[in-house]
């Protein structure tokens, strides 16, 4: 599905439903053609699912299983084929509506000269070569077809780029929100629109015999239909979108009315003589992409289309594909010619123009192979050509295999050419909050997966900005978006367009999304630089996106949400179990310090303005790098005029004579002890000059006294604790905890036995390599990849 783009951070979520992770209902386990099994087999090759679906359809047809006539007549009797085709084409109608939804006319107008040049080269060069190839086919296997439509169909078939398939490939390769990903998607969007215009022309030429006047009439009627839709459709859709509030469910009447309009548009264009699909596509393009309305349409239609109708279409297409018609040296030579022409036209045309636009060679080659992606849209074009009599069975089989080959090679080739994730780790100085240059800019990467945590995050940013005259805080607000089989390109691409851009660069129109509004309002009020970014990835590799983003943006700390949220009764329940895997992996591989936020509602459910901030923060200090980082973060927060910091330093009573403790004292690292003593000495001096900081040394004899002392601070607003404390007294504390990624102190603070309403921020200071308890605790309870015991 990493990353960079639109502000639709939470789309169409009813109140009370805070998790945007959309569990996939498109597993296709019952999909005709065994697409799920094929997709599983092709997974090591990182192939998009459409490859498995196309192959599954072909295997069911006369190319493989269908060669057995008894089987073919039993599974697909002739009387069932009209019903199959009807359902498949109905699903195709709504699929093209979704394809239109994925294209934003506003973004096309904003397409840069570089992407536009690449798009035009990616269309014109292969289109010309496609016309040249059509002469070779007409001279051999397609002698009886009409010349004009055949030339245009071949040109379109070779020049098309599959926008939805490309979006998924980029997301899975974590390139969607990179510069090359944005350029590829912009060029593919322009390519898509141009290809559909050319296809409409080809259909107009092919459906009315050889009369040029009738062809012109059909084309002009189609043009008139588009103009009429442009004047009538957008005002109606905008009215529906305005009445669909963010955070509330969209009125079902609006959804039903839109779907009826899709059917009506398809009927009109079919009567005109173009194709029913063209009307659905035009209507999808005209639906406004802002707000929850477009997302609601996707949610209502996508599962039905992808889970039921499209598999039927792949079967229907597979039944028409007979690879056995490609026989003899001539036919195989023509297949090789078509594949070579398709790849050469797209790749060379794109690379040449990209190099002229001063794109580096490696990126230019990557763009060429990405633009060569075909897919379902290509299959649709070929089926239309076959149904119109433009492509015979042999030409159709050749073109289907060409589409399979060009899409199949995309992912492996791009992985071999372009490996940004494997580049050497960049070096930057400020990887921690604890630093000597206190006046240097502080960069935080705050992650969220639901609207529930937004108020606490904003209040935490308010507390973290230090003194007002510094203006040195920059926050990257990262939305964690899971890439599932159901994730559509409309969600991925819109998020990618504005990734990492300042809010003031988002355009003149106000964004109706309440998450964006919240961050924008905070930025304007507090002069804090906030940039939205998104990780679009499977949960198993989400940590790679987070760590890479933190490295690229040179952040000092990553703040992660805890995988549980607090219920109304005060107890914690799991929000998403996979988030625990993400947190553990980030802790292990982060290029900077990490904080895990256990949210109990810091500051309430809304942003607390600077003048109204009145927080008491308690930092627990035993010793070790994590505790030093936690106290340093607390000192930064204490610069805020509305925040007071209480630092509780636990030391062991020298009168205590305990062999086990004495043994740990003897084994205690002298360097760590020295660092702790130096830090405490410097911090005491700072606290003595700052009335907002209280430093308290508490002498204890055992762990029970530690718990009792912490209990006395339960009425504070926020606890700051190190994940793995070190020190003499901590040696006697039970280090086993229910959630090892939190560490023992934070686990105690969130346990039901500990009475507090304070949120907890668990801090781990950056080290080049985690060792000891810091590393082993992350692997406690892990049974296998991504699975843990209960927490």
From TrEMBL:
Keywords from the named record: Antiport, Ion transport, Membrane, Potassium, Potassium transport, Transmembrane, Transmembrane helix, Transport
What Pfam families does the record point to?
CHX17_2nd, CHX17_C, Na_H_Exchanger
Topology relative to the membrane = Multi-pass membrane protein
**Transmembrane segments annotated in the record for this chain:** 86-103, 115-137, 149-171, 183-207, 213-233, 254-287, 332-357, 396-418
Cell compartment(s), UniProt: Membrane
What is one process in the GO biological process aspect for this record? proton transmembrane transport
Q: Where is the Cation/H(+) antiporter central domain?
A: 470-612
Q: Where is the Cation/H+ exchanger transmembrane domain?
A: 39-414
Specify where the region named Disordered lies, as residue ranges.
1-32
Amino acid composition bias (Basic and acidic residues), ranges on this chain: 1-13
Reading the lineage from the top rank, the first entry is Eukaryota
One Gene Ontology term of the molecular function aspect: antiporter activity
Where does the Cation/H(+) antiporter C-terminal domain start and stop, copy by copy?
A: 617-767
GO CC, alphabetical: endomembrane system; membrane
Which PANTHER family does this one have?
Answer: CATION/H + ANTIPORTER, CATION_H(+) ANTIPORTER 17
> Into which family does the record put it?
Belongs to the monovalent cation:proton antiporter 2 (CPA2) transporter (TC 2.A.37) family. CHX (TC 2.A.37.4) subfamily.
- Protein name, UniProt field: Cation/H(+) antiporter 18
Q: Source organism lineage?
A: Eukaryota, Viridiplantae, Streptophyta, Embryophyta, Tracheophyta
């Amino acid at each position: 599905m990493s990353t960079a783009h639109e502000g639709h951070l939470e789309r169409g979520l009813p109140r009370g439903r805070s998790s945007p992770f959309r569990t996939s209902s498109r597993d296709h386990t019952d999909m005709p053609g065994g697409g799920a099994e094929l997709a599983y087999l092709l997974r090591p090759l990182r192939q998009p699912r459409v490859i498995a679906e196309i192959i599954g359809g072909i295997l069911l047809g006369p190319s493989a299983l269908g060669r057995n006539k008894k089987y073919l007549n039993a599974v697909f009797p002739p009387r069932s084929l009209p019903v199959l085709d009807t359902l498949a084409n109905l699903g195709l109608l709504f699929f093209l509506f979704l394809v239109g939804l994925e294209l934003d006319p506003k973004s096309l107008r904003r397409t840069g000269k570089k992407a536009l040049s690449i798009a035009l080269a990616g269309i014109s060069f292969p289109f010309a070569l496609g016309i040249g190839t059509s002469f070779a086919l007409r001279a051999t296997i397609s002698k009886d077809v009409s010349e004009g439509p055949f030339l245009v169909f071949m040109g379109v078939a070779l020049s098309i780029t599959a926008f939805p398939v490309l979006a998924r490939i980029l997301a899975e390769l974590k390139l969607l929100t990179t510069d090359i990903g944005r350029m590829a998607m912009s060029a593919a969007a322009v390519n898509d629109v141009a290809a559909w215009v050319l296809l409409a022309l080809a259909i107009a030429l092919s459906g009315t015999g050889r009369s040029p006047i009738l062809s012109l009439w059909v084309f002009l009627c189609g043009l008139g239909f588009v103009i009429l839709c442009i004047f009538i459709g957008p005002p109606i859709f905008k009215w529906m979108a305005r009445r669909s509030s963010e955070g509330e469910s969209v009125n079902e009447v609006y959804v039903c009315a839109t779907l009826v309009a899709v059917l009506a548009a398809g009927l009109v264009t079919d009567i005109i003589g173009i194709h029913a699909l063209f009307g659905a596509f035009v209507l999808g393009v005209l639906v406004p992409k802002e707000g929850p309305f477009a997302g609601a349409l996707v949610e209502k239609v996508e599962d039905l289309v992808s889970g039921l109708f499209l598999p039927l279409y792949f079967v229907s297409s597979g039944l028409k594909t007979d690879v056995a018609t490609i026989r003899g040296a001539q036919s195989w030579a023509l297949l090789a010619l078509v594949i070579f022409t398709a790849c050469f036209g797209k790749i060379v045309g794109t690379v040449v123009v990209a190099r002229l636009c001063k794109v580096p060679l490696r990126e230019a080659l990557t763009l060429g192979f990405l633009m060569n992606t075909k897919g379902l849209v290509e299959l649709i074009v070929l089926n239309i050509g076959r149904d119109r009599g433009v492509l015979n069975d042999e030409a159709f089989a050749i073109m289907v295999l060409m589409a399979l080959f060009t899409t199949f090679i995309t992912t492996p080739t791009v992985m071999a050419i372009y490996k940004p994730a494997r580049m050497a780790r960049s070096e930057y100085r400020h990887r921690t909050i604890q630093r000597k240059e206190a006046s240097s800019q502080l960069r935080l990467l705050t992650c969220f997966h639901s609207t529930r945590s937004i108020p606490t995050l904003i209040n935490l940013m308010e507390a973290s900005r230090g003194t007002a005259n510094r203006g040195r805080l920059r926050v990257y607000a990262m939305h964690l978006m899971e890439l599932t089989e159901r994730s559509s390109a409309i969600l991925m691409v819109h998020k990618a367009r504005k990734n990492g851009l300042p809010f003031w660069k988002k355009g003149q129109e106000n964004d109706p999304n309440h998450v964006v509004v919240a961050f924008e309002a905070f930025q304007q009020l507090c002069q804090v630089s906030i940039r939205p970014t998104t990780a679009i990835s499977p949960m198993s590799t989400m940590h790679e996106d987070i760590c890479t983003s933190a490295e690229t943006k040179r952040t000092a700390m990553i703040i992660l949400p805890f995988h549980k949220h607090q219920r109304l009764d005060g107890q914690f329940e799991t929000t998403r179990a996979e988030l625990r895997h993400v947190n553990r992996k980030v802790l292990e591989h982060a290029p900077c310090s990490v904080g895990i936020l256990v949210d109990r509602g810091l500051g309430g459910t809304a942003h607390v303005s600077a003048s109204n901030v009145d927080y008491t923060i308690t930092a627990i200090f035993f010793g070790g790098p994590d505790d030093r980082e936690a106290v340093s973060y607390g000192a930064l927060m204490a610069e805020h005029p509305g925040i007071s910091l209480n630092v509780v330093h636990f030391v062991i009573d020298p009168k205590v004579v305990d062999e086990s403790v004495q043994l740990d004292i003897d084994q205690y690292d002298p360097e760590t002890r020295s660092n702790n003593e130096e830090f405490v000495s410097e911090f005491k001096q700072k606290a003595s000059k700052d009335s907002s900081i209280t430093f308290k040394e508490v002498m204890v004899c055992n762990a029970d006294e530690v718990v009792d002392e912490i209990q006395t601070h339960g009425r504070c607003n926020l606890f700051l604790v190190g994940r793995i404390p070190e020190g003499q007294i901590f040696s006697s504390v039970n280090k086993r905890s229910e959630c090892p990624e939190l560490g023992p102190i934070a686990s105690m603070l969130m346990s039901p036995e500990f009475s507090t309403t304070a949120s907890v921020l668990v801090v781990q200071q950056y080290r080049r390599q985690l060792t000891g308890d810091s590393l082993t605790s992350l692997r406690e309870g892990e049974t296998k990849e991504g699975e843990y015991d209960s927490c």
